[in-house]
């Protein structure tokens, strides 16, 4: 398995000038783009009340962002390969900040959704090219640490949302959960203009428009069907029609990608087993992590009676630990087997997920803190080695597509985790209560705990699946593939 064939661009043997400052710029947007997928969760009750919309509608503030982001990732990754990863990234930074500003205006619900849609477009432009820029900037000897840096900020953003959102809401109105992006984003844009090269080498191939249309309709059909099904029932006509569209466009997408000369998603990459196993593991760990992101705010605020500020302070523990664990994982990846480090990280995450199962209404808070620290360490050890392998084993003229798939894997995991965690929680609660439950029951907190235990049992199974994929990845990657 060689990754030098069909390559138009060789991997740098040494790190380019200002490489680490380039990482600061792209890492800031990696953090913010993923942060905005989860920070809204803790603010939704307040937003629903102030905007005078029911809870089932306010959920679209999260869903719309994730769906648009996921639908456009492959397209903008391909544009990065064609016209320059840096160019697409820079335009995306401006679009993302414009969407952040609009979202925070607090005018009305339609304006908020428009702002979130613009944010999703900008996030797709930046995230799809983040890993490609990193791989093109750093030599082999430092790429593990560089991926650790990016992976840390990606995971930080995805997990830090509820904690940071709770802290902001304890002092400011909900619009500031979007406006917090502005000063950091402006700083990152200015820094990027100074330190980033004008461009990296590009390919001269065209865009697979049929593939893009099919893929976008697939994502919209599948996840609109999932979220509408949760709201009105999966057997209703509209979700069934959307699922039918997803099935047809999935077939159309695969059919197109097999035959076109310039595929949006080069299916040949999936023949590289180390790439496929790593991508699958990334989907599953983000899916599992989102069980924690979705369920823990309910546990801390509703079941344990903490304020949003207190819950936010506890939820922020995970990203703080990740700040240190991610680079450590990158360092280990540079000095030892990337696959082994990633597998050890997943084993630690599985241990933490098993411990979550034993939390009760009377568990000391320090127990929650210890479990969270353990899980953050495991996640940090996994992220950067896995991303390093995924991005290193593909041909270099497909870095944009590989980076897009890497980002897409995370977002598919987050969307699926949001849907599956709430479904598992409510099913478990309904079994315990003896009737259909779709909300927290203040007079019966034990019902929530029962549902939470079932949800985390499912989450543990998912992580074990990721662990198996990581072991298989280690058996299918060679040191020569990572050059």
TrEMBL record:
The chain crosses the membrane at residues 20-46, 58-76, 88-107, 113-134, 146-170, 176-197, 209-228, 234-254, 275-299, 311-332, 339-359, 365-382, 412-435, 447-472. It is a multi-pass membrane protein. Keywords: Membrane, Transmembrane, Transmembrane helix, Transport. GO terms for cellular component: plasma membrane. It comes from the Bacteria. One of its GO terms (molecular function) is transmembrane transporter activity. PANTHER family: MAJOR FACILITATOR SUPERFAMILY MULTIDRUG TRANSPORTER MFSC. This is MFS transporter.
């Amino acid at each position: 398995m060689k990754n030098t064939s069909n390559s138009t661009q060789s991997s740098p043997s040494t790190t380019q000038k200002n490489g680490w400052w380039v990482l600061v710029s792209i890492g800031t947007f990696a953090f913010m783009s993923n942060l905005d997928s989860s920070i809204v969760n803790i603010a939704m009750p307040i937003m629903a009340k102030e905007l005078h919309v029911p809870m089932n509608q306010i959920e679209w503030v999260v869903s719309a962002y994730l769906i648009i982001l996921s639908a456009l990732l492959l397209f903008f990754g391909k544009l990065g390969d064609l016209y320059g990863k840096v160019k697409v990234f820079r335009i995306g930074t401006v679009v993302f900040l414009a969407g952040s500003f609009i979202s925070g205006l607090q005018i009305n619900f339609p304006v908020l959704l428009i702002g979130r849609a613009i944010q999703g477009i900008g996030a797709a432009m930046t995230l799809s090219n983040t890993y490609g820029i990193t791989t093109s900037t750093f030599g082999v000897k430092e790429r593990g640490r560089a991926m650790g840096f990016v992976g840390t900020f990606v995971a930080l953003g995805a997990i830090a949302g509820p904690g940071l959102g709770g802290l902001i809401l304890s002092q400011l109105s909900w619009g500031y959960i979007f406006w917090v992006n502005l000063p950091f984003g402006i700083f990152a844009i200015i820094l990027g203009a100074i330190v980033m090269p004008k461009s990296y080498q590009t390919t001269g191939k065209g865009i697979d428009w049929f593939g893009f249309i099919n893929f976008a309709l697939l994502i919209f059909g599948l996840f609109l069907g999932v979220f509408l099904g949760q709201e009105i029932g999966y057997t209703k006509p509209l979700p069934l029609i959307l699922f039918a569209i997803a099935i047809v466009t999935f077939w159309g997408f695969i059919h197109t990608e097999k035959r076109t000369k310039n595929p949006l998603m080069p299916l040949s990459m999936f023949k590289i087993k180390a790439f496929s196993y790593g991508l699958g593991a990334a989907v599953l760990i983000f899916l599992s992590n989102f069980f924690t992101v979705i369920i823990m705010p309910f546990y801390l605020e509703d079941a344990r009676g903490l304020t949003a500020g207190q819950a936010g302070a506890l939820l922020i523990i995970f990203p703080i630990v990740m700040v240190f664990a991610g680079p450590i994982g990158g360092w280990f990846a540079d000095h030892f087997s990337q696959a082994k480090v990633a597998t050890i990280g997943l084993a630690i995450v599985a241990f933490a997920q098993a411990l979550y199962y034993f939390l009760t209404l009377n568990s000391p808070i320090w127990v929650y803190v210890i479990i969270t620290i353990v899980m953050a360490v495991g996640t940090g050890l996994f992220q950067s080695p896995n991303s390093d392998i995924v991005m290193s084993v593909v041909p270099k003229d497909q870095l944009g597509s590989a980076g897009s798939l890497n980002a897409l894997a995370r977002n598919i995991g987050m969307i699926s985790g949001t849907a599956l965690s709430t479904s598992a929680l409510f099913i478990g609660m309904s079994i315990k209560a003896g009737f259909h439950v779709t909300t927290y029951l203040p007079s019966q907190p034990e019902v929530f705990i029962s549902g939470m235990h079932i949800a985390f049992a499912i989450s543990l199974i998912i992580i074990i699946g990721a662990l198996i994929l990581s072991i298989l990845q280690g058996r299918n990657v060679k040191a020569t593939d990572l050059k």
